[in-house]
Amino acid sequence: MKYSYPIIYKKAKNKSANPIIFVHGFNSSPKSHNIFADKWNESDYYAIAFPGNSLLKAKRGDEISVESFARLLANFIKDNNLNDVVLIGHSMGGATIALAYQLIPEAISKMIFVAPMNKSSLAKKDDYFKTYFPKTFEEYKTFLNALYYDTKPLFNNNEFMKKEEEQFDPFLYNNPDILKLGYSLPDINLMNKIEDALKKIEIPSLLLLGEKDAVIDREQCIKYFQKHLKNLKYKIFDKTGHMIYYEKFDQYYKIVSEFIKNDYSKEKNV
């Protein structure tokens, strides 16, 4: 398989749906969506890594930016002769798939935006800067509170928290590459480019949002996507934060798999 960075690939047992590519969020990795990949058997599944995230070094002078990630994604699709692809983008990955679509629209069949980065998120940029770059373990717990609707199951798990504290490394969240990428995200020029890309998407698209998200204004995000996407369905997950597929996996899997396999063109939302 042609790609310069790590890939997760799962070959379908029964190909009854179009291939999926999962695009991870800021400072995350392809394995973050393995909870879905482990259950999915309806089509080939791919998840690709992007440099600068999770200490992954860039190669061949690749830029550490959302626009560069979009080019890497488009080239991955081209180089591996993939067609009728379903793109799933989480957070920063939502912006990445929007930008990638305009580079290779003929190869993409559906789009799924999971708590996506978008211009309406600029209203919460102060919360983003306060939470996504922890330097101490206490700040890391604040970061977890920003990601999840309810952190009690995590914080009350003494074994989990002990392991997390032992493994916490502030460099992961404050190294030069991730700081450069992180501070480039809430930029109006980038957001305008993402908005222009969203306006060009006419294929079926699904927007998934949590009830409480530290970096997404739920209602403003819905209005924003409804304004700029022509063929949009949406779903709000109650008692869920930014990490929808962890907090409500069964519901997430059902909605995503049905959207991939079915025609929702006549439905208002899912």
CATH class: Alpha Beta
Query: What is the number of independent domains?
Result: 1
CA gyration radius, whole angstroms: 18 Å
Order of helices and strands: EEHEHEHEHHHHHHHEHEHH
CATH superfamily: Alpha/Beta hydrolase fold, catalytic domain
Might you state the CATH topology name?
Answer: Rossmann fold
Count of DSSP-assigned helices: 13
Structural class: alpha/beta
Please summarize the sheet with the most strands: 7 strands, mixed
Q: Spans with pLDDT under 50 lasting ≥5 residues?
A: none
Q: Tell me the β content.
A: 5-15%
Shape: globular
CATH architecture: 3-Layer(aba) Sandwich
Can you describe this structure?
The chain is 42% helix and 14% strand. The chain has a single domain (7-122, 187-261), classed as Alpha/Beta hydrolase fold, catalytic domain (Rossmann fold), CATH 3.40.50. Strands 1-3-2-4-5-6-7 form a 7-stranded mixed beta sheet, with helices on both faces. The chain is globular. It is an alpha/beta fold and 270 residues long. It has helices at 34-37, 66-79, 92-101, 125-131, 137-147, 152-155, 158-167, 170-174, 176-184, 188-199, 218-228, 244-247, 249-261, and strands at 7-10, 20-23, 45-48, 85-90, 108-114, 205-210, 232-237. The protein contains 13 helices and 7 strands. Helix 3 (92-101) links the parallel strand 4 (85-90) and strand 5. It comes from Mesomycoplasma lagogenitalium. This is Alpha/beta hydrolase. Residues 20-248 form the Serine aminopeptidase S33 domain. Pfam families: Hydrolase_4. GO terms for molecular function: hydrolase activity.
